[in-house]
């Protein structure tokens, strides 16, 4: 039996204060769904190096998992959509957002093609 080594795509809009919790939850979900790699596209006010620095502890705690991190400003949504892998190369998609970013991520979700939404694993942005 061939193992499924496809990565999980995580699209997130988060505040800096929730970054460590977000990263830990992302890695936990990756293990739960049997993924060995996570591709994170995060809309944040931090630049890449600040994002990486703040999430370093969670990355080191999960060193056995591969991770690709892309940070985007809110006006770069179209650029982000061009940079995500084809849906058949992914195990699934997870959406994650802070409470304050819920409306923005809803706009992102509306822009994501239907093929990606068909492989939705979790949506942390749904209204409770």
The first-to-last residue Cα distance is: 39 Å
Number of strands: 5
Number of helices: 5
- Reported by name, the CATH topology is Rossmann fold
Strand content: 15-25%
- What CATH architecture would you give? 3-Layer(aba) Sandwich
State the domain count.
1
The share of residues in helices is 25-40%
Average residue-wise pLDDT: 90
> Which CATH C-level class is it?
Alpha Beta
Q: Outline the biggest β-sheet.
A: 5 strands, parallel
Envelope shape = globular
Order of helices and strands: EHEHEHEHHE
Strand order of the largest sheet: 3-2-1-4-5
Rg (C-alpha, Å): 14 Å
Which structural class matches the secondary elements? alpha/beta
Task: List key phrases describing it.
128 residues; alpha/beta; Rossmann fold; five-stranded parallel sheet; 38% helix
């Amino acid at each position: 039996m061939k193992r499924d080594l496809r990565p999980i795509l995580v699209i997130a809009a988060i505040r800096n204060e929730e970054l460590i919790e977000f990263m830990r939850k992302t890695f936990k979900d990756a293990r739960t769904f049997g993924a060995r790699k996570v591709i994170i596209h995060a809309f944040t006010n931090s630049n890449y190096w600040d994002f990486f620095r703040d999430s370093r502890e969670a990355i080191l705690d999960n060193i056995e998992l591969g991770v690709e991190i892309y940070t985007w400003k809110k006006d770069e949504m179209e650029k982000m959509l061009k940079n995500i892998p084809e849906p058949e190369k992914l195990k699934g998609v997870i959406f994650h957002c802070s409470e304050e970013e819920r409306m923005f991520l809803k706009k992102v979700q509306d822009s994501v093609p239907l093929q990606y939404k068909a492989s939705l694993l979790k949506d942390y942005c749904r209204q409770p």
